[in-house]
Amino acid sequence: MVVTAKLGCQYQNGFVPPREEEKAAAAEEEEESDGMAQLPATGTGEERDGSPPDEERQAMLPDVTVVTEPEGPQTRLYPQRFVVLAVFSSYSLVNAFQWIQYSIITSVFTRFYQVTNDKIDWLSMVYMLVYVPLIFPATWLLDAGGLRLTALLGSGLNCLGAWLKCASVRPSLFGVTMLAQTVCSVAQVFILGLPSHVASVWFGPKEVSTACATAVLGNQLGSAIGFLLPPVLVPNIDDMELVGHNISIMFYGTAAISTVLFLLTLLVFKEKPMLPPSQAQAVLQRAVPQDYSYKQSMLNLFKSVPFVLLLISYGIMTGSFYSVSTLLNQMITEIYQGEEVNAGRIGLTLVVAGMVGSIICGFWLDYTKTYKQTTLIVYILSFIGMLVFTFTLDLKSIFVVFITGGVLGFFMTGYLPLGFEFGVEITYPESEGTSSGLLNASAQIFGIIFTLVQGTLTTKHGPKAGNIFLCSWMFLGIILTALIKSDLKRHNINSRIVKCEAVAEPMESPTEQSSVILINQSSAGDVAVDQSSSRV
């Protein structure tokens, strides 16, 4: 008797049923086997000895349906990916340095330009303000114009803003320095959304999270240098002419480095490698360009409840970091008068510890793929770190502030690449630049609100009141993160998960076993055959 096996293989494109010609062949073989069973026991010696001939042995085999898993597209990793990552991280570093270089020495610039503290705070907040309306055309340009064009705009505008600052070193030219900082803030729009995109386009699935963390690391390192160098290069002295000279040195040095990095971007930054680095990228690159709609992509993201929850929770955490970074000098100097240099060093400690946290989190994600669990744990630890920093700030021990600031930075700054990568996972196959851009826009909005409110609370009621305000919002962020449904879509594509279901139907005899054969052909050409009743 013959048993026909029905095999269903669940791919991304749905159910693949048996073909009609296979069913017809099974019926013909069944008729042949019945006819062979009625023949007399005569024939060759092999037949008389009890060994059936080849035809009969073939007819006795169960009918099977064979499904071959198609060979995946070719992928390759190129050494050039490290050069692209290094150049991007470097000009992102300079952009972050220009963001924080004013606010970390607020007292110096208020005296030099003869303006109030809030005017200097706006030199930092303009980065956040400009980002929100420009992120939408910037992400559209990334999708329509490509990675190279976006990188050139980011690096070029960063260079232009740096040179404009060199023309603003006079007490009456605060408007020029504000214009220059605005140009740098526009450059930031074309920088902050790229880490996950650069990592996905150039790096393989086992290193993509580490690459994203490294790209974010460049921006964090720029903030760290921004906390460290300005207090050293521009000390708080009474001679305003010497202060102006020191500011010029800082501005011209930044402009020279920005120019070199723009030229490097022009020379080495390519759109994408010749072959994709991962199966997920191969799927995206094979997609028909006409099918892509930026508007529809945005709608898909806002319809995704997990992404909306991440959007809010990421904005709260990163906005809190922006607020603390902007107001750190004011918080420290209000309790520890004359400690501008140590305020910069505490900021450096906060960011350097966060850089270590970012790299560790990147390695951990590449190894475990536990995106939600890691994000939630780091969020909780950031909240605890903020509480400890808040209630130890006024202990009159600068050493304790260094320690608590380092702990806070390790988790709070380490969260940034986690949010990027988690967002890409739950929104695949939507553009990495679009999801990252929206996350950054949320961070800028919360950053502006938090900086204004915390700055007011710090001025009127002291640093503790402002920090408690941030703690309450971070607690809300923990709840929202816990509610996110973790669906790792990109990881599933890279893992090439194929679910197969087999259902056997006996034709005549209930005692015969069904047979299912699945041939899985790997890229190396190996073939594995699996049967329900035996293993070949």
From TrEMBL:
It is a multi-pass membrane protein. The chain crosses the membrane at residues 82-102, 122-142, 173-196, 249-269, 305-324, 344-364, 376-393, 399-418, 438-459, 465-484. Residues 45-58 have a biased composition (Basic and acidic residues). The keyword Protein transport does not apply. It is found in: Cell membrane. InterPro entries: FLVCR1-2_SLC49-like, MFS, MFS_dom, MFS_trans_sf. It catalyses: ethanolamine(in) = ethanolamine(out); heme b(in) = heme b(out); choline(out) = choline(in). PROSITE patterns: MFS. One of its GO terms (biological process) is mitochondrial transport. Coiled coil: none annotated. Residues 17-63 are annotated as: Disordered. Its main location: membrane. It comes from the Eukaryota. One of its GO terms (cellular component) is mitochondrial membrane. Residues 84-489 form the Major facilitator superfamily (MFS) profile domain. PANTHER family: HEME TRANSPORTER FLVCR1, MAJOR FACILITATOR SUPERFAMILY PROTEIN-RELATED. Uniporter that mediates the transport of extracellular choline and ethanolamine into cells, thereby playing a key role in phospholipid biosynthesis. Choline and ethanolamine are the precursors of phosphatidylcholine and phosphatidylethanolamine, respectively, the two most abundant phospholipids. Transport is not coupled with proton transport and is exclusively driven by the choline (or ethanolamine) gradient across the plasma membrane. Also acts as a heme b transporter that mediates heme efflux from the cytoplasm to the extracellular compartment. This is Choline/ethanolamine transporter FLVCR1. It comes from Geotrypetes seraphini. The lineage of its organism: Eukaryota, Metazoa, Chordata, Craniata, Vertebrata.
